[in-house]
Write a structure and sequence with these properties.
The complex is a heterodimer.
Chain A: H1 2-8, E1 12-15, H2 30-42, E2 52-55, H3 87-110, H4 122-134, H5 148-167, H6 176-186, H7 188-200, H8 206-214, H9 223-227
Parallel strand pairs in A: 1-2
Chain B: H1 9-16, E1 38-43, E2 47-49, E3 62-66, E4 74-76, H2 86-90, H3 98-106, E5 112-113, E6 116-120, H4 131-143, E7 148-152
Parallel strand pairs in B: 1-5, 1-6, 1-7
Antiparallel strand pairs in B: 2-4, 3-6
The chains are: A mainly alpha, B alpha/beta.
């Protein structure tokens, strides 16, 4: 925020008009990213009295992040087949199965995935989170190297990342808001994370309570809890 | 970065309410021209290699990111969920512009790229809380010959 930086008064600072999470503007826009980088580096050659607070004058390609592009997820989810799993978990596992080819495509195209915070397969993250729901905020920790709070956060982060990486695999305009709204309103995984918040706020494990309070549901999506 | 007016009223107020006292001093140095500079990235995006420890909430520690790190080895465990991750998921350079730095180096616009970059979990703490670890990182940057540090928030 420019307002906060003006308060802090660092020696040199470039303010950019991009949404939070995108300090270099937009993905897959190398020329634009380079211009932002050049403008930042150019501050180093300035010698007037600090603080030097410059504004980057150009909006990021892709326009207003809140502007709807009409994006729809390339995958439609068929109803889960009858299994022995609880219905919500069965729906999530069916979603994961539908999204897996798209996630593989995203991984191949981009040469990377940022799924991996929970250090277990995405299906196991889903099972762990569902076990937390059924266990009223407690579940056996499947990864000994992570604390209960870390495995809770890692699994929820991995779920969001897997779904969003898969959903954006198909080229075409999609704003961050559209992808986030899709995850939180149209998927069983989003339903599970929303359902976990009130349950985990009552967890006997402090790190899970703390994570549920501040790190599970984004502020922009919290209104869905009020409705549900 | 970002306009307050683009944020929800709740998020804007949350950010404005953060106690951010001004730095007591304003160290300001000049250096050689850019084409002679050695550049490092210090990110607060909570990035780290897969095998490194995840960041915790209110975590003051840092992670070391080698300059030759494969992009597929980096994950993000920043404790805030209130910023977009889809840009980073599609292109790491939107947060951590290592490829762009390599291109500038190849064109001779910067001198070299640091052997190591550094990542913090930049959420929930005052800047002053990071002083001890920031001093450690500054020492390591100096040992690496770095004379240009890009502090990149997220």
């Amino acid at each position: 925020m420019r307002e906060i930086t003006e308060r802090l008064r660092p020696p040199r600072f470039l303010w950019v008009p991009f949404e939070l999470g995108r300090p270099f503007g937009a993905p897959d826009e190398p020329e634009f990213q380079t211009e932002v980088l050049r403008a930042t580096l150019a501050l180093l050659e300035r010698e007037e009295a600090p603080p030097i607070l410059d504004d980057f004058p150009v909006e990021a390609p892709g326009g207003d992040p809140a502007e709807m592009t009409g994006w729809t997820c390339p995958v439609s989810f068929p109803p889960a087949e009858s299994t022995d799993e609880p219905p919500l978990l069965a729906n999530i596992l069916a979603e994961i199965t539908s999204l897996t080819p798209w996630h593989a495509l995203a991984h191949e195209t981009r040469g990377r995935t940022s799924v991996g915070s929970a250090r277990m397969a995405i299906e196991d993250s889903a099972r762990f989170l569902h076990a937390l729901l059924e266990g009223h905020g407690t579940a056996e920790n499947p990864v000994a190297s992570l604390s209960p709070g870390q495995i809770f956060l890692g699994a929820s982060e991995d779920m969001r990342t897997f779904y969003m990486e898969a959903a954006t695999a198909k080229p075409g305009p999609a704003t961050s808001h559209e992808v986030a709204d899709w995850f939180w309103s149209d998927t069983a995984a989003g339903e599970l994370l929303l359902a976990l918040r009130p349950v985990c706020l009552e967890s006997p494990e402090k790190s899970i309570r703390r994570a549920a309070a501040r790190q599970l549901v984004p502020r922009a999506q919290i209104h869905r809890l009020v409705r549900s | 970065m970002a306009r307050l007016s683009d944020l929800s009223p709740e998020t804007a107020q949350h950010l404005l309410d953060k106690g951010c006292p001004p730095f007591e001093t304003a160290p300001f140095v000049t250096g050689p021209p850019l084409h002679q500079r050695r550049v490092a990235i210090v990110t607060t995006a909570g990035l780290h290699r897969r095998d490194d420890d995840n960041f915790d909430l209110l975590d003051l520690s840092y992670r070391v990111i080698p300059g030759d790190v494969p992009a597929d080895d980096l994950v993000m465990t920043q404790s805030s969920v209130n910023f977009d991750r889809t840009g980073f998921q599609q292109d790491i350079n939107v947060v951590f512009p290592l490829d762009r730095l390599r291109e500038l180096q190849a064109r001779g616009e910067i001198g070299s790229i640091a052997a190591f970059h550094y990542a913090f979990n930049g959420a929930g703490q005052l800047a002053s809380a990071y002083e001890a670890t920031a001093r450690q990182v500054a020492r390591m940057l100096k040992e690496d010959g770095v004379n240009a540090a890009l502090l990149v928030p997220v």
